[in-house]
């Protein structure tokens, strides 16, 4: 085992493998920064190039690229309020307000450092858990997976607003997200649902245009209304100074970062859930860290912990996502599904062989994630002052570029005119949601998980009738969801009690 | 009782969810299960939110506002904010229409130039150089390097 572990490291530093890793990480760096062009899409685009490569060259190239897109995706989310990746949306919630306050450097520093810790955690998780995790993954059937989705939705809904009204708006927003996921051909009977005879809608509404529209358009409108730069009138000297503060923030909240990395890893192993859930669950956990009502209300207005949580989780899930892919051939996300395709192209068969015959190669994947993330974080930290100074550019100069990124990002999703209509439609919907204080995060989660939730509901009902509702694990997860919904009320009461006690 | 924007948004979503449930009622069980299971609670919640909006005093959701992004309306007076919002929405829609009509490669430099000259009131030097930079970046990355297929505009399709 130890031999394979060290052998994996040696393999990564062989000159050809290392060169391919550098190339992959370089591509991943820019893919992460560009909105819309996702890690999974780029993995697919790179597939034709690996035909003539050996596994020792192709895996560092592909994995080096895929494991860093989340890291640099955070940068775009923080600077412009446009998600660099679908999995870096939660970083916007507190990262963008920090950029607006002139603390972009601090936010990016924190995002990069927490991403690095998350990636290292995920890699370590992958290394130690391969033999342990098998029973956990196999113990979760469709009913349990459905309940995990419900838990995720309840978690984000209850924490995205205050009190009963906030919970109502959160659940409503999540429900509308689920309804939007209904568009397209029904997977069970093949019936067209709300496609209006448009071929474009047969596969459902594409995720990227919906995400980009919902988040980018309201921010662009707001930038135009303010008439200033993103960072307001803050001088560019101040922006760069926060970088080390952001790094220090990560270590000041080290255990929060580690706990969010753990959340990311645990969700990362479960097939289908991926970064969409991990980022919001960890964000929700970060908000639970508030000690006073004021602190709790500070989330969404630029609390650094709101950057640390998602930053750590969306990177830690990458390493963990490899576990079911490598060990059982069950891809944990769309990116992993493409990587699985690459395995077959390279003549590797996921399963016991990867844990015995090819164990050195499996450990080289762990080291690839570690090395690629360390390199990208170091390079990003080196250039961070220049990157952060983008927020001092006048809004009027920046708006066309943001619109270009928004439309191009959406269009590259399926290269169809419908992408542009979708981005516009959901952009204006996002604006009205923000205008009337409807939380967008539950909508996103509902929309992303809707298809999966429907499949799990259908499989559960077909396989077990309504008896799946009485399965012990289902009841436990359901009770957990109820507890998650009730917890903010209890926490708020406790915080208010604590404050009135302090005042006395 | 006051019918405001928030109430309008709630009633729109209530209407959509009701339409989903009605439509789903005509589908086979396996297709209708999920839409009905989601549509009914969403309809009830949207209706509840609508009535809360109608009977509540004042605007907004007060303490219920969560951790999502907030608009910075407070920084400028409401009249200016509304005027600027309508203007920028017009520009966004204009860019969309331009892309649709003449395609990305021509729409990009044209939109940038017009936006900088009219909306940004920038001088020719900045307007032209930034438009060229945007077009160069777009062409270099998406057409030359990534080979993304961009459709020609509707106008050219009609002319051809």
List the helices and strands and how they pair.
The complex is a heterodimer of chains A (about 500) and B (about 160).
Chain A lengths: L1 H11 L2 H19 L5 H8 L8 H12 L2 H12 L9 H11 L3 H36 L2 H18 L3 H18 L3 E2 L6 E2 L13 H20 L9 H17 L1 H16 L4 H14 L5 H5 L7 H24 L5 H12 L6 H4 L3 H30 L6 H20 L2 H19 L5 H24 L7 H32 L1
Chain B lengths: L4 H20 L4 H27 L22 H25 L1 H16 L4 H22 L8 H6 L1
Helix pairs in contact in B: 1-2, 3-4, 4-5
Strand arrangement, largest sheet of chain A? 1-2
User: First CA to last CA of chain B: what distance?
Assistant: 57 Å
Number of domains of chain A: 1
Average pLDDT across residues of chain B? 86
Largest interface: A-B, 79 and 74 residues
N-end to C-end Cα span of chain A: 60 Å
Which strand-content bin applies to the residues of chain B?
under 5%
User: Which residue ranges of chain B are poorly predicted, with pLDDT under 50 across at least 5 consecutive positions?
Assistant: none
How would you characterize the largest beta sheet of chain A?
2 strands, antiparallel
Query: What structural category characterises the helix and strand content of chain B?
Result: mainly alpha
Form type of chain A: globular
Annotation, overall tally of beta strands of chain A: 2
Assembly type of the shown chains?
heterodimer
Please state the CA-atom Rg of chain B, rounded to the nearest Å: 23 Å
Topology, number of strands of chain B: 0
Q: How does the major sheet of chain B shape up?
A: none
Q: Into which percent range does the helicity of residues of chain B fall?
A: over 70%
- Principal-axes geometry of chain B comes out as flat
The percent of residues in helical segments of chain A reads over 70%
């Amino acid at each position: 085992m130890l031999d394979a572990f060290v052998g994996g490291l040696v393999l990564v530093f062989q000159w050809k493998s290392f060169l391919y890793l550098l190339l992959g990480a370089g591509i991943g760096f820019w893919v992460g920064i560009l909105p819309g062009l996702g890690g999974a899409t780029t993995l697919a685009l790179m597939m034709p190039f690996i035909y003539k490569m050996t596994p020792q060259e192709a895996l560092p190239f592909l994995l080096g690229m895929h494991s860093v897109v989340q890291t640099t995706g955070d940068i775009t989310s923080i600077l412009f309020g446009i998600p660099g990746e679908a999995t870096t949306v939660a970083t916007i919630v507190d990262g963008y307000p920090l950029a607006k306050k002139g603390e972009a450097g601090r936010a990016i520093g924190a995002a990069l450092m927490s991403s690095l810790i998350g990636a290292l955690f995920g890699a370590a998780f992958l290394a130690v858990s391969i033999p342990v995790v098998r029973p956990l993954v196999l113990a979760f059937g469709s009913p349990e997976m459905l309940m995990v989705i419900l838990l995720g939705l309840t978690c984000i809904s209850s924490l995205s607003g205050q009190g009963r009204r906030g919970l109502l708006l959160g659940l409503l927003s999540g429900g509308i997200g689920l309804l939007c996921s209904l568009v397209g051909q029904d997977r069970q009977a093949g019936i067209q649902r709300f496609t209006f005879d448009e071929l474009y809608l047969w596969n459902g509404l594409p995720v990227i245009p919906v995400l980009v529209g919902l988040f980018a358009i309201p921010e662009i409108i707001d930038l135009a209304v303010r008439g200033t730069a993103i960072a307001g009138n803050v001088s560019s000297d101040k922006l760069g100074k926060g970088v080390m503060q952001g790094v220090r923030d990560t270590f000041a909240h080290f255990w929060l970062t580690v706990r969010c990395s753990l959340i990311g890893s645990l969700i990362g192993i479960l097939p289908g859930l991926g970064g969409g859930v991990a980022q919001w669950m960890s964000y929700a956990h970060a908000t639970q860290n508030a000690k006073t009502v004021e602190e709790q209300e500070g989330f969404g207005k630029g609390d650094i912990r709101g950057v640390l949580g998602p930053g750590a989780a969306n990177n830690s899930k990458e390493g963990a996502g490899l576990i079911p892919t490598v060990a059982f051939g069950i891809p944990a996300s769309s990116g992993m599904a493409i990587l699985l395709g690459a395995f077959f192209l390279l003549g590797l068969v996921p399963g016991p062989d990867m844990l015995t015959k090819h164990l050195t190669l499996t450990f080289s994947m762990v080291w690839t994630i570690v090395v690629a993330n360390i390199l990208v974080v170091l390079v990003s930290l080196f250039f961070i002052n220049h990157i952060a100074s983008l927020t001092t550019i006048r809004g009027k100069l920046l708006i066309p570029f943001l619109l270009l990124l928004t439309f191009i990002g959406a269009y590259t999703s399926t290269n169809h005119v419908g992408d542009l209509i979708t981005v516009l439609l959901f952009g204006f919907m996002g604006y009205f949601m923000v205008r009337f204080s409807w939380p967008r995060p539950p909508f996103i989660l509902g929309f992303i998980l809707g298809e999966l939730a429907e499949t799990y509901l259908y499989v559960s009902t077909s396989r077990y009738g309504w008896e799946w509702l009485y399965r012990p694990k289902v009841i436990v997860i359901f009770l957990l969801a109820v507890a998650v919904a009730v917890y903010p009320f209890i926490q708020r009461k406790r915080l208010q009690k604590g404050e009135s006690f302090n005042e006395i | 009782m006051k019918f405001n924007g928030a109430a309008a948004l709630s009633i729109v979503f209530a209407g959509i969810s009701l339409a989903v449930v009605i439509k789903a009622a005509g589908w086979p069980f396996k297709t209708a299960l999920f839409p009905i299971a989601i549509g009914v609670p969403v309809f009830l919640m949207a209706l509840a939110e609508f009535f809360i909006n109608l009977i509540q005093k004042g605007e907004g959701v007060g303490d219920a506002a969560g951790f999502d992004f907030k608009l910075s309306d407070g920084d400028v007076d409401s009249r200016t904010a509304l005027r600027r919002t309508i203007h920028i929405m017009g520009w966004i829609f204009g860019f969309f229409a331009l892309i649709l009509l003449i395609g990305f490669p021509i729409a990009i430099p044209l939109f940038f130039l017009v936006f900088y000259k009219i909306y940004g009131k920038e001088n020719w030097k900045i307007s032209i150089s930034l438009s060229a930079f945007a077009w160069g970046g777009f062409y270099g990355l998406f057409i030359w390097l990534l080979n993304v297929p961009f459709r020609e505009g509707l106008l050219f399709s009609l002319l051809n």
